[in-house]
């Protein structure tokens, strides 16, 4: 349909039908018929006619179920406007990929895009039209459980991944590619900065910080064509995002020109009452529709109160019309008016879901997402022929998919112990649980010690269970649970070399393990093929290449700790640690335990001289930066060469370092290659105190290296 035809359809709708299009309900309203309107659900004030006219469904999947609901719905629909089916397809549908934080650590946007394409294919054949992804919230506080859904603490890198995920989900044309999904970027805005790392908590920051650090990744997703935006639960400048006119109308729609669908997060319109920004459902509906929220998820404020607000003149019906028209346009882009069943296909579903091709990509991404954090004495990869004791609660755990694993099944996950058994000779591996995730019995420790004493090397499989991160999974203590730390202490007494594999959803305070183990591999929650990928890293079939995209703190007391911080008027001199009246802790380093961009390999790389094409840059004359990198080890590997810039003196103080580029070099033993970067004046711009973007003439520093800390440095001037 063209815009004229959609407008004609809109004009045929009654006010009740239009407002119902703005309502999103969970699947049980549609699957159960009238009986589902009774009981607790009646409290929402939802009538059968509202369900009959509602515009979208949350959380229903399975091709036949979607087909049945769509056909039943259309049989009752006066105008034949099809439903849209939406779901949280965050890091895979049936085939589960590593959590997004792990995907970020791959620094591989092409593979990230491929993972989204596969997730879209599996979802689409199962009847889904829209995914609530990507989640691009910038994060600096690992206490917040939802860090597992993001790609890290850097706005530039997050923006690259935002674009990649949108490309993967949406492809080139939603109408012509029925096995793609419309993407919904979330959570707009700044959901990743709650006070105290506590989910849903207050966010309080300057608009300049919001624009410079937190908004770029959302904007990148929209520039890539993302069709939908989800509002965040938090306040922005004291106003809940879902009712924030400046944020939604001013920035999102007027400034950025977004004319797609804006959806609330679950019940966030009604939550304005709890925030203290609305007295009742009617005022909440008033604020949300004025802010431009098109779809209300799982609360009835719109359907119950918009008719009265329009009748009283407080709300112009044109606001409802524009919201409905945006929804109709998306349905048309998805091809639903031509084929309401779209990609839903039970036969194709059986063929596609969890197929070997998809599992292979899950394996590859898990292998590229695991970060080697420590490897003293070259303990890893495990020496051939050595007897291995695999000990820990994750030795044979299938809880490695992580939060938001959609319809993925834990039992389908490849366990680490099973994978190692397949790869090692008979009798070479012994497995002991050692402890639970949060509890331990002496009998478990005794069995673990017995296993360790009969082995040449201990591999510890430790971590958080999946419910210890994710939504609602905020923690104040981000160390491994004490039961596991006690297991480590007891095994240390055996004197056997120990390599630890950590399964988790956030950066941890690693004390108690990184100081006890000889090697540490950060596996995150690696997805369906995680056990196979980790096993291959341990035995050396895969050379780890991932790099951290969130800093790991020395302790929770440092948080937030992140690489792109500002200097102070009294910076600490690392050579004069005894100075008191400088910005420092008296009981901890300022710097994180492990910096942004950090990661080790089974080979070594040597950097040559950092070369600049000149010592000045202008608006029309960029600067080229290059460095030769050589693989000085005995096996092939990938080195992620990172470029950082510092504006030494600006109208507003600038971060000590900002990531501006990176190059992934695949090098054979002894091979050298140049990492080449081009710096333009545009890359030196930032938000000034009046919020305009411009660069300042003066001195800049450029840093190149394997992480944000260990770098070569040179200077240039912008003239």
TrEMBL record:
Record's catalysed reaction(s): Hydrolysis of terminal, non-reducing beta-D-glucosyl residues with release of beta-D-glucose
Enzyme Commission identifier(s): 3.2.1.21
InterPro entries: Cellulose_Degrad_GH3, Fn3-like, GH, Glyco_hydro_3_AS, Glyco_hydro_3_C, Glyco_hydro_3_C_sf, Glyco_hydro_3_N, Glyco_hydro_3_N_sf
Keywords per UniProt: Glycosidase, Hydrolase, Signal
SUPFAM superfamilies the UniProt entry points to: (Trans)glycosidases (SSF51445), Beta-D-glucan exohydrolase, C-terminal domain (SSF52279)
Family from the record: Belongs to the glycosyl hydrolase 3 family.
Name this protein carries in UniProt: beta-glucosidase
Organism annotation: Paenibacillus cineris
